[in-house]
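To: structure subgroup
Subject: Chain for Friday's discussion

All,

I'm putting the inputs and outputs inline so they're searchable in the archive.
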Amino acid sequence: MPLDRSVSETATPVTTVDVFTLWLAMDEYRTRSRLFAALVLGVLVVLGLRLVQLQIVDTQAYSGASRNNAVREVRVKPARGVIYDRQGILMVDNEPTYNIAITPRYFDTTRIDLLADLLEVPDTVVRTRYQEALDWSGFQASRSFPNVTFDQFSRVQEHQYRLPGVSYEKGQKRRYLTDARAAHALGYIREIGPGALERQRPEGYRRGDLIGQAGVERTYEPFLRGDVGSEFVLVNVHGRRVQPYRSGVEDIPPSSGYDLHLTIDSDIQALAESLFVNKRGGLVALDPRTGAVLAMVSKPDFDPGLFSRPVSAETWNYLQNSLDKPMFNRATQSGMAPGSTWKPFMALMALQEGLITPTSRLSCPGFHPLGNGRTFRCMGVHGSIDVGTALQTSCNTFFFELMMRTDVNTFSRYANAFGFGVNAPTDINEQWAGTIPDSAYFNRVYPRGWTVGYSINLGVGQGNMVVTPLQLARYMGAVAMRGTIHAPHLVDHLVRLDTQERVEPDLPEGETLPVETAYFDLVREGMRRVMEQGTGRLLQIPGIPSGGKTGTAQVGANREDNSAFVMFAPYDDPQIAIAAIVENAGFGSVAAGPIASLVAEQYLTGQIADTPTRRLVLNRALTSESEPLDDGQ
């Protein structure tokens, strides 16, 4: 009892206020719990909705952007278009190669010496390539060692586990399949340089890509290249491939480039090249009916296959600095005086301008007087002759007089119409307009004044003028077709293999020259007489009448003259027009003429006739050589 009384006396009685306070505290706790639960639920709902949006609603938009370092996009390069000749013979195709790539983000620089040993290159080369790759992109694979040998590739693969950040990609290089090099017509491909890469990056080019550098490889690069594809792969922490990303559903396949079908005939191209051994010069043969280039030779030349593998410093120095200038396209860029091959042009201009008539006769006493006791010498004494005989005998006096009767501006205007002094509309990028003087030119070159004595040599294709073999061939095509001049071109058509889409080169239609057809007939007849009775009589193709003109162009003291020749055949139905210039090789009938005649015969008949005359012509073509070059030329 005392105990109960004590407890009872010390206990605090529970009041109504205390119960109310406790109730309020419990109610506040329940409210906070509900608010916290609602907040958590709201956050989960927002995250869930965002996840649904990313994974379902916007999966296409964010599939590429949501990738992390575990996914790598690998560019899949398309097969470059191949090249055929006019007969469908495959001249250039591709063969597979292996390229070693470095991804700087994953590469272990302590393994530089190992990679150098495997690739058989100095450590400094690997270090330089690594730095170049790093400067380009730290996270993208950079093609640092292109076209490695299979042995090198195999060694790198065997040590792949020791080389994080080192990978490989399959590439391609050009393979040349015919005896015809056609180096300047075809061109070559090389890795894109820094300057071009900066300009063409918007077009999808990346470091290590190959690009056409000359010839049709350059002109038709956008078609030949094709469309690059993409392949997405999962990589591990060392940057090595593990497996395709999403089973390849996002991969974009590449699309191969267009195949080129050239106008070149590889058979006569190979023949012409063989006849230019030990010579410098150029040759262009074309179909006068269309302007299609049948052969284009520039010698000395180079092997385009050189650029399918690393080029040594010694080889590159020769290609760039040799006196032979093997990479210079003499067929389209080398300007030389045309010599007497110019005389048919002079006759056409004079007839059209009324300086002479078809029956006019001029006297040739063996020289042309200029006044003050000065004379210009002819190669013979021809007496009273008409224009046809002047062409047949190549009378200098006759054509000196024609130039005396005209002015240089008229001369320049007609020359430009025939394609001289201007660039031709063509798919041949590497060309030079040459020089055709007018009064402004003479005023600039001779500021103290000039007279007709400065221009009279133009009448015989000498003096202040230079033309190219391409221009001469185009001009000869116009003569063959009685005044229709076409745009010379190397590509007949392009075909895309996967779609069979066909594309024609964008070239202008043929133009009609401002000369009466009857005058072309008269000049053509004179050129026929050159081949039958004149300086070209040994060059006539057996059984096939033709028109032609030899030329010998002076080049200065102590040097052999340049040899030039133009022709078309057959005479009544021209199918080939051809021009050849051989530097420092003498008379046109001895060096350039035999080469052009044999090429035309091979094209028209498929063979070289085995006759004493043709054997003589072949021997001249093979034995004539250009005078050696020296530092003074």
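Points worth raising on Friday:
The first strand starts at residue 71 and ends at 76.
The CA atoms of residues 483 and 578 lie 16 Å apart.

D.
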